[in-house]
Amino acid sequence: MPEQDDAEREFDIKWADAAVHKEPSARARMLAARWKENPPEPVPFRGDPRPVARHRSSWMSTALVLAGVAALILLLGYLRFRAPY
Question: What is the pLDDT of residue 19?
């Protein structure tokens, strides 16, 4: 099959995009068939039935990370100080 030049390929894309009827994807067809027999229950917008768990505040998490980094720096400094050269 000979290669199409860019002008013909672009014409084909424009022709395909201008189509009045576009076939739905396989997933859309599968869901439509499934929902015809068993429609989904309505779900509230961004509804989450689980209660919101309390999280540590961001400053507390930041303080824990900084404390861990400081402890690591002190430990490495101590080990370097004690190591023979």
Answer: 76
